[in-house]
Amino acid sequence: MTKEIIIDASVAADFVISVSKRREFMACEFFDGTHDFHAPTLIDFEVTSAIRKLLLARRVSEDEAFMALEEHLKAPILRHAAAPLLTRALRLRENISAYDASYVVLAQAFEGLLITRDARLARVAERHCAVVVV
Question: Which residue numbers delimit the PIN domain (predicted)?
């Protein structure tokens, strides 16, 4: 049975930037080919921002940065428009940024599992949806 997985930008960015993290993720049950991945369209900006920071810090070359971005854009992630998520995201304003709330709201909508590398987000999100830190 397919389980809906909401993948946040911390996981998506590490997946395309770090070979060791990619191997680690691929060993996880969530990447076994039986799950559909979802994210708000915001993920594309967040991953691009993470790649940009690494490029400016000279931790990746320009070629590596553009290859990582291309790989991210080809990833089998079903992207969802932000507008339908905004009202519910604002309701979570006390402890979660609007950016992070968009992932939580999507996880709620699909009754799916949010996977993140952000332990702080996971602690707050677990009150609203299923979440796993990878």
Answer: 5-126
Cβ–Cβ < 8 Å for 33, 65: no
What does the alpha-carbon distance between residue 27 and residue 83 come to, in Å, rounded to a whole number? 34
What mean pLDDT is predicted for residues 17-26?
Answer: 74
Q: Where would I find the H helices in 1-134?
A: 9-17, 19-26, 42-56, 62-74, 86-91, 98-110, 119-125
Q: Is the pLDDT of residue 94 over 50?
A: yes
Q: What number is the average pLDDT over the span 37-46?
A: 98
Quote the pLDDT of residue 1: 47
Please say if the pLDDT value at position 80 is more than 60.
yes
Number of separate domains in the chain: 1
Q: Which domain holds residue 58?
A: 1-131
Confirm if 60 and 51 have CB atoms less than 8 A apart.
Answer: yes
Residue pair 78/38 in contact by the 8 Å Cβ criterion = yes
Helix axes 62-74, 9-17, angle to 10 degrees: 130
CA gap 48, 120 in Å, rounded? 22
Q: Note the Cα 37 to chain centre separation in Å.
A: 9
